[in-house]
Design goal:
Chain lengths: 174, 326
């Protein structure tokens, strides 16, 4: 065959390197869950509409269900399993626990990875008045920036509250 | 999903040489991978072009801005020159999709995304865009028509173009550089995207194997500009109606220059030339804005269920021009 439908892919996930042979159709999400046993990232819609599969690819948040594993050969991936520092929770994880920012928890890994990526993103959003200045992260900004993550339980109020305490420590509700 | 071979191209020339009938170029994959999963697209060969086209944005001495087709949507919206000089473009991109998708999607891929018409995306339904000659379910009685076209549609297809970014690029008179087997060419906007006519399977004027490698913006139009998008929820939804607008009002209160492009109304981003022409030299008032909107929408042909879009488009044009004239 001229071109193979199978490829060799090397990815670093949470600091650990993996070399795997994948069917080219394999999504990054399926690679993580089914091949590497990292089931923290969730498959919600498998169409990029719910955000449950959100991971950080080379530091930027992305929907792993829409990413072909073969197209991410050489990438550094961070999943929810890699957010905590050993036994110490990531500040976002602590805030989600403290502020009761979930009910069933299915969307939570995606919410956490999305929030971690979002906090590292500078620049305006669709609700920013002045496009030339980087705005402070108000609840309205967080609502807009987190719109790629759905929560069917409707825990949004506390998700925003939890993210606020990490985005602007001391300014949010205690 | 159909099995496919995969190659990552390092240059436009390599990408074009790798193209063959049945192949597809892959950018960020946010639309193509979904369409492959739905069975709407079934390429047997994928040419990954994310490293083949430039991922930089450069300002030239004549005031133009050149954007590599591989630039991610989020990087385009966050670029200082776009935020300061082309606010309608920054806003258009920021209203599109979600933070995750904007991080993945490329500028070239954004232009070439397919319609989100529910009948196009459902392989159990007839669709002239997906399967030429099979019919158009959207024009059948009882069809879900709420987001279909009001301008420029044909009996073959009433779908709308989904991109926000393309609407701003159309108002800005951008042009795209396409590389193909027969060399390079520039394609003007409007003009890249087609109206459906009898060939709704063709979204653009690009020929098979042609690859968009860059987008060039001329100096921004004078005056103030913005992008407004009306949708069914506040974020992460496609436009019902959107408007990219620039307005320059002279000291005498009369319109010196105006740019208007509508999204959500047609098979292509809709440059509102008739409204632009009608406004020139007239006082920048609510009454003249309404008159100009009426000039553009005189040719609207709403379907049962899209009549609301004509009213909405008129109101958005008036409201946005009022905002820009304040």
């Amino acid at each position: 065959m001229e071109n193979s439908e199978i490829s060799q892919v090397t990815v670093t996930v949470n600091g650990e390197a993996y070399a795997v042979e994948v069917d080219n159709r394999t999504s990054l999400l399926d690679l993580l869950r089914e091949r590497l046993g990292l089931t923290g990232s969730k498959k919600g819609c498998d169409h990029g509409q719910c955000g449950a599969c959100t991971v950080l690819i080379d530091g930027r948040r992305a929907n792993s269900c829409l990413a072909l594993a073969v197209a991410h050969d050489g990438a550094a991936i961070r999943t929810v399993e890699g957010l905590a520092d050993g036994a110490g929770l990531h500040p976002l994880q602590e805030a989600f626990v403290r502020h009761d920012a979930f009910q069933c928890g299915y969307c939570t890994p995606g919410q956490l990875c999305s929030a971690a990526g979002m906090l590292a993103e500078a620049g305006p959003s669709a609700v920013t008045e002045d496009l030339t200045a980087d705005p402070p992260l108000t609840p309205g900004e967080i609502h807009e920036r987190m719109s790629g993550n759905l929560c069917r339980c409707g825990a949004y109020v506390n998700i925003v509250k939890a993210i606020m305490t990490v985005a602007a420590p001391g300014e949010g509700p205690s | 999903m159909r099995a496919f071979s995969y190659v990552r191209a390092a240059s436009p020339a390599e990408a074009v040489s790798q193209y063959r009938p049945g192949a597809a170029y892959l950018g960020g994959g946010t639309n193509l991978v979904d369409l492959m999963r739905l069975g709407v697209a079934a390429p047997d060969h994928i040419v990954d072009v994310t490293r083949a086209t430039g991922d930089s944005i450069a300002e030239s001495s004549d005031g133009a801005l050149r954007i590599g087709a591989g630039v991610r949507n989020s990087d385009l919206a966050n670029h200082p020159a776009v935020r300061e000089r082309y606010p309608m473009l920054a806003r258009a991109v920021l209203t599109g999709a979600s933070g995750q998708i904007r991080n993945m999607a490329t500028v070239g891929g954004n232009l070439l995304q397919r319609t989100r018409c529910p009948y196009f995306q459902d392989v159990a339904m007839p669709c002239n865009k997906r399967t030429p000659g099979s019919g158009c379910q959207a024009t059948e009685p009882g069809a879900e028509t709420g987001n279909m076209a009001i301008l420029g549609h044909s009996p073959s297809c009433v779908a709308t173009h989904p991109s926000d970014m393309a609407v701003a690029l159309t108002a800005l008179s951008a042009r795209v550089l396409a590389v193909g087997p027969d060399g390079d060419r520039w394609v003007e906007m409007p003009g890249l995207h087609r109206l459906p006519g009898g060939r709704p399977d063709l979204d653009t004027v690009l020929t098979p194997g042609e690859l968009i490698t860059a987008i060039e913006l001329p100096s921004p139009p004078p005056g103030r500009s913005t992008y407004r998008k009306v949708r069914e929820r506040a974020s992460f939804a496609f436009a019902l109606i959107s408007l990219a607008a620039a307005l320059d009002v002279g000291g005498d209160g009369r319109v010196r220059e105006c740019r208007l492009a509508l999204g959500g109304v047609a098979h292509a981003p809709w440059r509102a030339h008739a409204a632009e022409q009608a406004l020139l030299g007239l006082p920048a008032t609510r009454e003249t804005f309404a008159m100009a909107a009426g000039e553009e929408l005189r040719v609207a042909r709403p379907l049962p269920g899209t009549e609301y879009k004509v009213t909405l488009a008129r109101n958005v044009i008036v409201s946005v021009l009022e905002e820009l004239s304040r």
